[in-house]
Design goal:
Layout: E1 15-20, E2 31-37, H1 42-46, H2 50-53, H3 55-58, E3 65-67, E4 77-79, H4 89-115, H5 129-153, H6 155-162, H7 167-174
Parallel strand pairs: 3-4
Antiparallel strand pairs: 1-2
Helix pairs in contact: 4-6, 5-6
């Protein structure tokens, strides 16, 4: 196993887990891709979700996914603007409102990690294909149980766990120091 492939852009070792939810968000996970290593680009990993592979089946009618600027713009994925177009006033307003929806997807990940604290830093040695598969099964079980509990108890239970996994804890998980101002805006411009 090549450890470098697990090294993420955030400076830690991990997997690239793509989650696809719904809006308005009840924090239920509608689709996911698991198994890609941390060095895999998000847009590449998204191609392996059902939403990425079979968009005409996954999205009904005019449905689409809001995505960040790293993803391509397609019939079913609409990214926020990259620089320099993001500095145009109308685009900045659009991106601000889209970011509020994007926050819902971050809440979905927060609810998953809040409910299953073991995901905050899955402490397993990955030194073979079997240990990689074992770690993936662990995460997959958490995803399935998370969505099952939401189906049974409703989204209010997930909202409780969402608040247990704060942006500070996410920074600790990722070993990425960030500055968040009073409005929840991170120094690099992403809203949490």
């Amino acid at each position: 196993m090549n450890g470098d492939t697990y090294f993420t852009r955030k400076g830690n070792y991990g997997f690239n887990l793509q989650l696809v939810g719904n809006v308005p968000s009840n924090l239920w996970i509608a689709d996911y891709c698991l198994g890609m290593t941390g060095a895999t680009h998000d847009a590449e990993a998204f191609k392996h979700t059902a939403a990425g592979k079979f968009p005409d089946w996954f999205f009904k009618g005019d449905e689409f996914a809001w995505v960040d600027s790293a993803y391509p713009c397609t019939k079913h994925t609409i990214p926020v603007h990259k620089e320099p177009p993001s500095h145009v006033h109308e685009n900045a307003i659009f991106d601000k409102y889209v970011s509020r929806i994007w926050v819902c997807s971050e809440h979905m990940m927060g609810a998953l990690k809040g409910r299953f604290q073991c995901l905050r830093g899955l402490r397993v040695d990955i030194n073979s294909k079997n240990s990689h598969a074992h770690a993936c099964r662990w995460i997959k079980c958490a995803i399935i149980l998370h969505s099952l509990v939401i189906d049974v108890e409703g989204s209010h239970s997930a909202h409780y766990f969402r608040d247990l996994h704060t942006s500070v804890q996410e920074q600790q998980d990722c070993a990425e120091p960030e500055h968040v101002d009073d409005e929840g805006v991170v120094a690099d411009g992403e809203e949490k």
